Amino acid sequence: MHFRFNGLLISTLFLPLILGFASCSEKKAESNQVETVTEDTPVPESDEKIILFFGNSLTAGYGIDADDSFAGLTKKRIDSLGLNFKVINGGLSGETTAGGLSRLDWFLEEKPEIFVLELGGNDGLRGIELSETKKNLIAIIKKVQTKFPETKIILAGMQIPPNMGQEYATEFAEIYPAVAKEMNVTLIPFLLENVGGVPDLNLPDGIHPTEEGHQLVFETLWPFIEQEIG
After folding, report:
1. What average pLDDT score do residues 175-191 get?
2. Chain segment 85-99, per-residue pLDDT in tens
3. Active site residue 205
4. Among this protein's residues, is 200 annotated catalytic?
5. Please, are residues 84 and 147 in contact by the beta-carbon 8 Å criterion?
6. Can 214 be counted among the known catalytic residues?
7. CA 180, 183, 188 angle in degrees (round to 5)?
């Protein structure tokens, strides 16, 4: 007995073989389909914990390779120790505390285990009202604490040259310990300790550290990171 399959005259003896082949072909086609990913598709979460550096050009590593910035050096140390952390560099040149507050939400899509806040230097250099800088730093910390209460926050203290007057510079430096105390976060007294104001450790602009300068900044920073890693 014969029948037609796709226009061909086929003997019934070959029917089981043909139907089996057709079935396998359908399954193979199904298995080769690419999954469509939409906004509603759950994204697999990494088990790596996050260290987020959130700051301005100092964090971004202005003028040098980002891998040689203090954030990049932190990543190298983390990797060398085989720790289950990834480092995110959220530095943006020219950033103020107001600008940082406005863009923070995008960086809080995932929970940072450690949040290093390095902002305010540009506020001081521009002579922004000190109360505004303090208010923004507090708002940034509150936003992190509200969304992720378990995140460990490190506030990088900053100082500025007395271009705006010695009184302004003094009161600017006092913002950081005051904010750290009020918000109960860890304070690095001065992130640029032994680097700020040292010509050989800064680029010609006198503001941004060289690679050697960043190495010293990292050495100031690392004990605070290490303590929070536990």
Report:
1. 98
2. 999 999 999 999 999
3. yes
4. no
5. no
6. no
7. 20
Nearest to 108 by CA among 61, 159, 151, 57: 151
The pLDDT > 70 percentage for the chain reads 80
pLDDT of residue 230: 73
Residue of 68, 123, 208, 214 with catalytic role: 208
Q: Which DSSP letter does residue 88 get?
A: E
Interval 32-80: pLDDT, tens: 333 322 334 343 456 899 999 999 999 999 999 999 999 999 999 999 9
Helix (H, G, I), strand (E, B) or coil at 59: helix
Question: Which position among 57, 68, 69, 214 bears the catalytic label?
Answer: 57
* Closest C-alpha to 95, from 69, 143, 62, 67: 62
- Alpha carbon distances (Å) from 220 to 46, 144, 184, 214, 224: 29, 24, 20, 10, 8
Question: Exposed, middle or buried: residue 47 (CB in 10 Å: 0-12, 13-18, 19+)?
Answer: exposed
User: What is the C-alpha separation between 124 and 157, in angstroms, rounded?
Assistant: 12
pLDDT at 40: 41
Give the predicted TM-score (pTM) of the model: 0.80
Rounded CA-CA distance 51/111 in Å is 9
Going along the chain from its start, the domains and CATH numbers come out as 49-229 (3.40.50.1110)
Find how far residue 26's CA is from the centre of its chain. Answer: 45
